[in-house]
Amino acid sequence: MRYLSVNVRINRPQFNLNLNTKILLSGVTAIFGHSGSGKTSLLRCIAGLEKHSQSSIQFGQTYWQNKHTFLPTHKRQIGYVFQEPSLLAHLTVRDNLNYAIKRAGKNRHISESQVVELLKLTPLLAQFPATLSGGEKQRVAIGRALLAQPQLLLMDEPLASLDLKHKYEILTYLEQLKQQLNIPIIYISHSPEEVARLADQLIMLEKGQIISHQSIEQSFDLLNQANRQLNEQAVFLSAELIETAQQWQQMKVALKSAGKKSTTYLWLSQINVQPEQELRLKIMAKDVSISLQQAQGSSIQNILPVVIEKIETLDSGMQLITLNAGEHLLYAKISNKAVHDLKLYAGMPVYAQIKAAALI
User: Fold this and answer.
1) N-terminal to C-terminal alpha carbon distance within the chain
2) What gap in Å lies between CA 154 and CA 174, rounded to an integer?
3) Domains of the chain: residue spans and CATH
4) How confident is the model at residue 261 (pLDDT cuts 50, 70, 90)?
5) CB-based contacts of 6: which residues, under 8 Å, 6+ apart?
6) What is the C-alpha separation between 142 and 155, in angstroms, rounded?
7) N or C terminus: which one in the chain shows less Cβ crowding within 10 Å?
8) Distance CA 38, CA 18 (A)
9) Of the candidates 119, 122, 137, 129, which has an alpha carbon nearest to the alpha carbon of residue 91?
């Protein structure tokens, strides 16, 4: 296995970045943290856009930077996708792509046709950037970065400037990119949902320090906490496809914990996945209800025995109930009146109900 070894020391009047880690050069490694945590400074050091005498960057067996060496950005064989696409306005989409191809030289492992097909750019090739939507511009920017023939793709919050519709559109393309191209990606984001959906590894930064560097499955609790801080009550879970009920357009999945399949099963709307393919689920607290008995004759497909772990008061007359489902935690957001009427308390066994259509 190859690694990107990163030892970065940055000392500024209002900010220090001090970290030493190895990033696996495979799949997607997300760098996550709040604004000011050091995410972009770290990426700029990896890209060679910043030079610091106390830092070292080693890509596999090659030093990009140390006390004696500093390889300029254009020699690091990276692709860089910024928050803003920064396309060349006087060139068509095709010419923007060709600009990257010309700069890449002869050693090509990604073809133009492959990129155009992957990112569905054919209808855009004759257009100028000014005529494109935000999502289309970012697709072109990703295509241009790929045609630079990178050994490493760096993405600095590429969805930050997009609306929700275009964010989901680009996320779909990024998932396909991850599956079809064998290029390691370092992906910066402050969105727990983006990270949970794309990443294989997660590095969490806080005030210039690494507070966690683990697999994404081991990091879901941290992302759930980050969601809470963003005032979104939801949990991320890893699952594996067990069976498909084609006639109902639904599928059954088994939740996973620490990479192991559990006996907790959920039904959700069918999507295009293969047996034993890993899935990442997002369950919103507002989509979980509580029953004192296991409902009979209900349209709700997912009814799980759980134990109330904690009850917290929220704004607007609502309560957040933390539910222990064995190896997994769920949240339920219900009214003060419901908590009172059901006489709920911490330690009480109840049933969590989740609509199949609500699972994301």
Assistant:
1) 33
2) 13
3) 3-232 (3.40.50.300), 235-358 (2.40.50.100)
4) low
5) 19, 20, 21, 22, 23, 42, 45, 46, 56, 57
6) 9
7) N
8) 9
9) 129
Residue reference for tokens 């990024």: 174
User: Does residue 12 surpass a pLDDT of 90?
Assistant: no
Q: Give me the residue label for tokens 């860089």.
A: 80
Q: Which two tokens stand for residue 18?
A: 């001090």
Return the C-alpha torsion angle 264, 266, 271, 277, nearest 10. 0
Nearest of 321, 355, 322 to residue 336 by alpha carbon:
321
- What are residue 354's DSSP bridge partners? 288, 302
For tokens 């090509």, name the residue.
Answer: 108
Closest CA to 47 of 125, 151, 126, 118: 151
Cα distance between residue 183 and residue 189, in whole Å: 19
pLDDT tens per residue, range 60-94:
999 999 989 999 998 999 999 998 888 999 999 99
Q: What pTM was estimated for this model as a whole?
A: 0.89
Neighbours of 57 (CB within 10 A): 22
Q: Are residues 146 and 153 in contact, defined by beta-carbon separation less than 8 angstroms? A: yes
Round to whole Å and give the CA distance between 69 and 273. Answer: 46
